Amino acid sequence: MRMLLLIGLMIVTLFTLVSGKIYWDDRIERVQAKGQTAHEDFNTGGDSHEEAEGKKNVDVVTLDKLNLLPKEIQSLFRLKVGQGQSVNLAIVGSASASKTEKTWSHLLERKLVDTYGASVIKITTKEIANKTSTQVISEKLLDGLAASKPDILLIEPFLLYDNTKLPMDDRLKNLSTIIEQFKSFNSDVTVMIQPSNPIYQAHYYPKEEKELEKYAYTHGYTYLDHWKAWPSGESNQLLSYLTGGGLPNDKGNEVWARYIEDYFIQKAVD
Q1: For 195-208, how does the pLDDT look when each residue is reduced to its tens digit (9 = 90+)?
Q2: Chain centre distance of CA 194
Q3: CA–CA gap between residue 243 and residue 96 (Å, rounded)
Q4: Distance between CA atoms of 57 and 63, rounded to whole angstroms?
Q5: Which of 176, 168, 178, 177 has its CA nearest to residue 211?
Q6: Residue 215 near residue 179, CB atoms below 8 Å
Q7: Are residues 140 and 226 in the same domain?
Q8: Do the Cβ atoms of 162 and 201 come closer than 8 Å?
Q9: Is residue 269 domain-resident?
């Protein structure tokens, strides 16, 4: 009987010792973990767990939105965002504002910034009025913008203003000169080309637009043919999109902007 009592006492003692060790080991680990968390919060500027999760969620949202971009420029945006930098988009072309504040370029800028955020994309617009492409080059009107090293160049190469003033061969050579100027500062610049606005019942102008499109594809540049979104140049309906001087009115600027927006935003944002 006494032997059974001794064995029982030994079992209870052993159980108590083991349970106590497990309990204190757990307490020690909790204290060490808490101290480590406090140290990390101090080194990261004191971000709480909730703040850190918030930042993580913002990053996820940003990366998800980049899926809306066309595949050919997604990697550029992801690289820049990953480095904490903005993608710089330079818009160059003739001034087609037609005395309205709702120009296609400003509508585009507002839409892209609203979609991706001002920290992801920065847009600089250079609209030049009453200058041929030859004058733009000789007067060095794009020197400063080229030196800013934009990541993307979206250029309308003064196609309409050059019309009847310069032969198409010279205009395409001028376009090459302008592009090479931008490449001299950033050899990796992504080049996108688009035509000026369509005009009513033109004869040579549509043929020049086709030559511009051919130039873009021959050189491997993206061609944004927004003419597809306008009424036909032979249709009286086109006149409701233009001013009396043949420039886009508010309606024309909206249809132009929407086409370019649809390129940069491949599907609707929830």
Answers
A1: 999 999 999 999 99
A2: 17
A3: 10
A4: 10
A5: 168
A6: no
A7: yes
A8: no
A9: no
